[in-house]
Each structure stands twice: as structure tokens, then as C-alpha cells.
Specification:
Layout (H helix, E strand, L loop, with lengths): L8 H10 L6 E4 L1 H7 L8 E5 L3 H10 L3 E6 L4 E6 L2 E7 L1 E6 L4 E5 L3 H6 L8 E3 L5 E3 L3 H7 L8 H7 L2 H13 L6 H9 L9 H12 L4 H10 L4 H4 L5 H13 L6 H9 L3 H10 L4 H8 L12 H11 L1 H15 L6 H12 L9 H5 L7 H16 L6 H12 L1
Parallel strand pairs: 2-5
Antiparallel strand pairs: 1-2, 1-8, 3-4, 4-5, 6-7, 8-9
């Protein structure tokens, strides 16, 4: 019995529609790999099939499933069953590749489909009945934590240079021990191909790598191999990155890709802007990196100063700066002062400035730049006073700011 089907009625319906009447369908890739190495069931499950995209769509609609042509030129249709999406791709063979994309034809050969994939551990199939199908030795590699290219590593990379980054990403996520020597040597020989990739694709792989369990040591391997700077556009601070990852674990915080990217490569606003452009980061991601530049809070600050920092910067920016400063400090992971500082943003309810324009109009000011300046002076005075809400104290601040 296929245990991946347990508790997944949508997956049962998809396979029942596709795996019959002369066509085959099998679960493929990451879901099979993770199940095999005991990582449990993933939420995203990919399916490979001998049926063409048109036939997949016809069968899905006949079975009452929603079909979305998410990558029809590459043979991919996303089927939605019981509210869950399943990416279904017709078996393929590469006809032509240019290092960025491949021209493919649809096929019916499972061994040929396996041979066109990147790593052996990603070319595993699981049938509806629960049989593991392995044409390339991927099961042994997955269980050993060995990320190995299928066939000639240089050829696999030249088909798509993004596979250099995928090598490190999968090693950080699933690998044990050192990198596969043949794979690493091929990545180093073909490093020039990284410049041919779209920055959006590089961004996606990089952010996934940064949150993988072994990201710190894998980035160190990349740096030693001369492959980190071509990705970031600048040298990386691998030591600070590794320390931040340890701190996140020690504090029970989830791995955060943007914060980790900041620890790795941001010391100034210019660094943040270069990364935003170089990796095609979103505006929100770029702004968050830019907010890392400048002075950081420290345990030596008084409580009022810490709270003023949180108020002016916001919770996220305060915590990002505090955690990265903690990582750069070299302090022990259980240092009480740094732990207390990182908790300030999470625990302190940020107050709302109690004065509004109407309060200054009542004091005789008129609308215009002067009113805005008075509001700003009053807010700064209120912060410096420790965020008082006593009516008299607030009124005194307003009068002083109004001049």
C-alpha cells in the first residue's frame, strides 16, 4: 500500500483518474525523497504521467477535478482536488538546452524521464500501489545524504546552470558529510554559467538555501570554492551567518531568509541596494535589508533607550538588528543581556502617540508646515520622556512643542 496516499483523498482521486486505461501516473521527486528518508509527508506533491497535457486535462474534468495549465509548454498541468493542488507533468525528453532552459518533447519512457532530471535523489518514483521505482541509484544516495548528479555532472550543469545552486541547496537541506567531490568539481568548472541565469531564478534558489538546516557549513563550502561571491555580488560574512543561525535555533525562532541574507552580506545601505537589484528582491525585502544599516541596539542601552529604538524602527527591524548584532558580538548563545534585548520587540506593546493635529489647532497653530513640525517635535519629546500618558504630562509636551 502507498502510505503517501493516507489521509490525502485529493491525491487518491488524481491518481485514480490518471493511472488507468493505458496511462500511468506516479508520485515523483521531493515527496518520495522526503518520505524515504523519514521526513514525513510534504504538502506539495508532484506527479509524473505518460498522459499528454490534453489527456490529463480531459481526464481531470471528467473526474470533477479542476485543471489549470500552469506550465503547458513544458507539459505541466496543476490539478486541484479536495482543495489541494497537484502538479502533474508529462514524461519528457530534452531535445535542446542552452544552460537556461530546455526544449522538450513528450515521451512514454520512465527511464528516459529519470535520466533528464538533476540529482539521483530527485529521480525517484512511487507507484499508486506503493512500489518504489529507482533507475539511477537515488534511493541509496538519499539514505546516505549524498547529492549526486545523474550521469555526467558537467553535462547536467550545462543543461541548466541553476543546478550549481541547486547542488548546494539540496546538500544544505538533505546532505550528510562532505559535498560529492565530482559534483563540486563540476560546479567549480562551470561557475561562469551563473552569470547567464535570470536573477529571479537565482533569488528563489538562494533564499531556499539560506534557511536549509546545513546552510552555514554549505555557504562556507561555496565560499571556499569561489562560488558565493558570484551569487551575492560581494564577499559573504559566513561566520556571522552561521552564528545567527545558531542564535535562531537557541531562541526558538524560525529560520528567516531575509534576515539571514542581511547577516551574510549587508553592512551598509549600498550593500542592501546592490542585493535588491542583483537578486531582484521584492520592494519589501529590499526595504527590510536597507533597515539593517546603521547603529544596532545593544544590551548596554537603558530600557528607555531600547524601547525608543523599537518605537522608531518597528518590531521587525529592531529584532533583525538586535539578532545580527548578537551574532557579530561573539557572545555566548545563553548570554542573558542579549537574550533580554531580543525579547524587547516581542514583549513590549508599542504605544500609540496620544497627540493629533487637532490638539495643536486648539493651541492656536494653523494648518501647514509649522503644524507638522510641532507634531514631530512633540512626538520626539514624548519618546524621550518615556512614552507618558498622564494628561498633564502630555499637555505640557504639546504646549512646549507648539512654542
Amino acid at each position: 500500500m502507498n502510505r503517501l496516499l493516507e489521509g490525502r483523498p485529493g491525491l487518491v482521486r488524481v491518481l485514480a483518474a490518471l493511472d488507468r486505461d493505458g496511462e500511468e501516473a506516479r508520485i515523483v521527486g521531493g515527496a518520495v525523497r522526503d518520505w524515504l528518508i523519514g521526513r514525513g509527508l510534504r504538502s506539495d506533491i508532484d506527479i509524473a504521467t505518460t498522459a499528454t497535457p490534453d489527456e490529463v486535462t480531459r481526464r481531470a474534468l471528467a473526474a470533477g477535478l479542476k485543471a489549470v495549465p500552469t506550465g503547458i509548454e513544458h507539459g505541466t498541468v496543476t490539478l486541484v482536488a479536495e482543495g489541494e493542488p497537484y502538479e502533474v507533468t508529462t514524461l519528457r525528453e530534452d531535445v535542446e538546452t542552452d544552460g537556461r532552459r530546455a526544449r522538450v518533447v513528450f515521451g512514454r519512457s520512465w527511464p528516459h524521464d529519470a535520466q533528464r532530471r538533476d540529482f539521483t535523489m530527485n529521480a525517484l518514483y512511487l507507484t499508486r500501489s506503493g512500489e518504489l521505482v529507482d533507475f539511477v541509484g537515488g534511493a541509496a544516495d538519499a539514505e546516505a545524504g549524498r547529492v549526486r548528479f545523474i550521469g555526467d555532472a558537467d553535462l547536467r550543469i550545462r543543461e541548466d546552470y541553476l543546478r550549481i545552486l541547486r547542488l548546494f541547496r539540496f546538500h544544505a537541506a538533505c546532505g550528510r558529510g562532505p559535498l560529492d567531490a565530482e559534483a563540486l568539481a563540476a560546479a567549480m568548472r562551470n561557475r561562469g554559467g551563473l552569470s547567464r541565469l535570470s536573477r529571479e531564478r537565482v533569488r528563489a534558489e538562494t533564499l531556499k538555501l539560506l534557511v536549509a538546516p546545513r546552510a552555514g557549513e554549505t555557504l562556507a563550502d561555496m565560499q571556499q570554492a569561489g562560488l558565493l561571491e558570484p551569487v551575492l555580488g560581494r564577499p559573504g560574512d559566513v561566520e556571522t551567518f552561521a552564528r545567527l543561525a545558531q542564535i535562531e535555533v537557541a531562541l526558538g525562532l524560525p529560520a528567516d531568509a531575509v534576515r539571514r541574507l542581511g547577516a551574510l552580506a549587508v553592512r551598509s545601505e549600498e550593500d542592501a541596494e546592490a542585493l535588491r537589484e542583483g537578486l531582484r528582491l521584492s520592494n519589501a525585502e529590499g526595504a527590510r535589508l536597507a533597515a539593517l544599516a546603521g547603529p544596532a541596539p545593544t544590551p548596554g542601552m537603558c530600557e528607555k533607550g531600547q524601547k525608543a529604538f523599537v518605537y522608531r524602527m518597528g518590531r521587525e527591524a529592531f529584532q533583525d538588528r538586535a539578532l545580527i548584532a548578537f551574532a557579530r558580538s561573539g557572545a555566548a548563545l545563553d548570554d542573558a543581556g542579549w537574550r533580554a534585548l531580543t525579547a524587547v520587540a516581542a514583549d513590549w506593546p508599542i504605544p500609540v502617540f496620544p497627540l493629533k493635529a487637532a490638539d495643536f489647532l486648539a493651541l492656536g497653530l494653523t494648518p501647514g508646515p509649522g503644524l507638522g513640525a510641532a507634531l514631530k517635535r512633540a512626538e520626539e519629546a514624548w519618546v524621550e520622556a518615556g512614552f507618558p500618558f498622564d494628561r498633564e504630562a502630555v499637555a505640557a509636551i504639546a504646549r512646549a512643542a507648539a512654542g
